[in-house]
Amino acid sequence: xxxxxxxxPYDEAQRLEPHLPPLSTRLTNSQxxxxxxxxxxVTLTFATSLDSALSLGPGIRxxxxxxxxxxxxxxxxxxxxxICVGVGTAIADNPGLNCRLAAADQSLxxxxxxxxxxxxxxxxxxxxxxxxxxxxxxxxxxxxxxxMQLARAGxxxxxxxxxxVPEPPAAKExxxxxxxxxxxxxxxxxxxxxxxxxxxxFDWRAILAAVHDEGLHSxxxxxxxxxxxxxxxxxNSELLxxxxxxxxxxxxGQGSVFVSPPRKTGADGQSSAVARLTNTTWIPLGEDVVLCxxxxx
Length: 297
Ligand SMILES: NC(=O)C1=CN([C@@H]2O[C@H](COP(=O)(O)OP(=O)(O)OC[C@H]3O[C@@H](n4cnc5c(N)ncnc54)[C@H](OP(=O)(O)O)[C@@H]3O)[C@@H](O)[C@H]2O)C=CC1
Ligand SMILES: Nc1nc(O)c(N)c(N[C@@H]2O[C@H](COP(=O)(O)O)[C@@H](O)[C@H]2O)n1
Hints:
Mean pLDDT: 89
Strand order of the largest sheet: 6-5-4-3-7-1-8-13-12
Bound molecules: NADPH dihydro-nicotinamide-adenine-dinucleotide phosphate, the ligand Nc1nc(O)c(N)c(N[C@@H]2O[C@H](COP(=O)(O)O)[C@@H](O)[C@H]2O)n1
């Protein structure tokens, strides 16, 4: 069934603005200047239940956002150069990772029209670049995957896949390249003695630097559980410029995928809160509420 076109009111978009990358950073690749050492503006954004769950289980796509907050997420997609998920999410959700806000003729930078409110926020035709973190190339995408279909139809962009596999299968690479996507090789962190080699991780700074090197100056990171928990950890939370969470009035229950970053323990062995948001804005949208803030430093 065709999806109802998503619209997001101008007034709500204005409330989000202090939590978003500056409009001037939204450049096309050809406009971007090379600053290899810089990182993109990073927004961590996801939807949770009242028990801090992202989905009913690791492989289960679960709708939490209502129509208003879903439109908000698509507005965020229109305001970032890139959109990132871990391979767990790519496999579980077969996501589109495009912006499906109803397009309008005006650009975001323009003033609201006089009269005729409610004005629905206009979007440009720019789409975010999907980035999938897939160190072992586990995502078995095909030309029928949703993100590929959207790219072929001109309704989204083909993904860039960040991987540690030195020689990706030629057929996978060809399919990606034909649609404008690519594979980006990246070195993993050295293995810790307790870590099995196949679970070696990328440093998030290296991931973000690789994204920036592609001319992508802002990125929204949507999930899933492992990605969110590692970014909220005390090792990585300084990389976050903005956090935007949709809270849905439901409990998913035990066995879900939860947002619960690793506990911070000081040198004295005392535990303290991992992270806290400051400069918060709470925006009710339908039955949900959207919480925006910055990680308190
Ligand atoms: N409610 C919401 O807003 C959202 C919900 N979700 C839900 O989340 C669930 C998926 O979460 P989860 O299973 O935790 O999977 P993730 O999407 O977080 O992907 C985890 C995998 O990504 C790779 N990865 C992540 N970070 C790194 C890193 N730093 N270095 C190297 N590899 C990395 C690893 O792959 P490997 O194992 O190959 O090493 C890891 O196992 C799904 O059910 C989905 O529906 C997802 C997004 C948003
Ligand atoms: N904002 C938000 N609310 C939910 O309820 C969700 N389940 C998600 N999931 C994220 O959105 C992706 C799906 O995107 P498409 O609609 O297919 O484009 C999914 O993969 C998660 O990243 N987000």
